[in-house]
Amino acid sequence: MDNRSDIWRGVDAIKPRFVDLSDRVWAMPEVCYTEARSSAEHLAELRHQGFRITENVAGIPTAVMGEWGEGGPVIAFLGEYDALPGLSQEAGVAEPRPIEAGGHGHGCGHNLLGSAALLSATAVKDWLAAHKVPGRVRYYGCPAEEGGAAKTFMVRSGAFDDADIAITWHPSSFWEVAVTPSLANTRADFIFTGRTSHAAASPHLPACAIRSAPATCPACTNWSGALTRSRRGQR
Ligand SMILES: [Zn+2]
Question: Are 158 and 93 in contact (CB under 8 A)?
Fold first, then answer.
């Protein structure tokens, strides 16, 4: 069954509300885990569209989830709404023009990302409702994509355990279905501790913390190289 024209008609019918939502989020740029107003805007739209609401997903105050429907597969749409520091910008201007010098801004387009993901979730649930097709549609409002890794904590909390598919998108200057893998990152902290001893009586017993630090650098380089190869399925 080709339902694309049906879905596109549904998207066009509800589009203006989501353009407005995107514009409002653009005008209230909030960074990494401080997206109180932006997540509240998404929450209000979820309520308006008839989704069942879960707040504080994974114990994160700005993570929200809306679910609609019964039975069938769980179709998840992932949205974001966090801004970036130092990218304050007047809308509709193709050159740097900060509204507030050094202020936050939506340079990555997450105002669009969250709003259009919520639009997609709404269009799909409207289509399921109109055609009486069983299925659950979820919108996950994911905070702190820029440097906060909120989705990691949401995954760990089990928020996606029963999702059959998770779909998202990102604004860009061209249109494509992205199949390119992107780099993940991890972090390691090292603490160097030494051991003191009497320099004259027991000069053979001390352990110098500073000396082990330079030796750690090449070890880390080898380790990160091995991580990259294993991520690519090489040995
Ligand atoms: Zn982004």
Answer: no
